[in-house]
Amino acid sequence: MQKFNANMLRAYFICGTQDLPAGKTLPEIVEEALKAGITAFQFRDKGAGSTLSSGERLPMAQRLHELCQQYQVPFFIDDDVTLAKEVSAEGIHVGQSDEAIQKVINEVGSQMIVGYSCSTLAEIKTGDQLAGIDYYGSGPIFTTQSKDDADPEIGLAGLANLVTSSKRPIVAIGGITVTDLPNIAKTGAAGASVISMIAQSSDIKNTVKAMLDAPWQN
Length: 218
Prior knowledge:
The protein has one domain: Aldolase class I (TIM Barrel), CATH 3.20.20. The two termini are 22 Å apart. The protein has an eight-stranded parallel barrel with strand order 1-2-3-4-5-6-7-8, surrounded by six helices. The longest helix has 17 residues. It has nine helices and eight strands.
């Protein structure tokens, strides 16, 4: 098992086939991001825009995991313990409406890094009482178009409040742009997790560089 380090959260890329720009494949985008220096990648393929059949998910996950291994970057699966186990992913991330967090911890906690979406003080408090969670994903910080089921935005003040209250590192998510990174770092967040900011970028190398250069508190 790869040991969790909060530095993994600095430049955290999330992507699936539903997020791709025209003319690019998922492995192409992911490898470009890996070359640019992302610190973690999460395979999140869901929603109406996904182009993968159920039979194509496993081979795609295997291919993406191989790429991440080449660059020594932890590979996370979103909300699919079975798939995460099949590809021996380094981590799993689950949301409040996904599989019960305690069940996930019981299944993979000793083998994988566990991330948990928490966007309210109540959710953070509940999460802090459980052993086996490594980090929280909190947001959306700003309005996002990447997730159909996104919660209301919490803003920078809301993020700062969660960071202060949390016993674990928090990675910010939702509607983040390059110009937002310094202010997000000032909240004490460990990093930013982004979808469109990298997937739709015309200059992935410099986009990732901005994430790495932000004054994170780790």
